[in-house]
Amino acid sequence: MKEIRVLLLNGSPRANGNTALALREMEKVFAQNGVQTDCVKLTQIFPLPGGLCDTLRSYDTILFAEDSVRTGSIGEQLGFAMQQCGWQGKYLLHAVDNTHLLHANVPELRKDQQLDAAALCKDILDYLKEKQA
Question: CA quadruple 8, 12, 16, 21: dihedral positive or negative?
Answer without folding.
Answer: negative
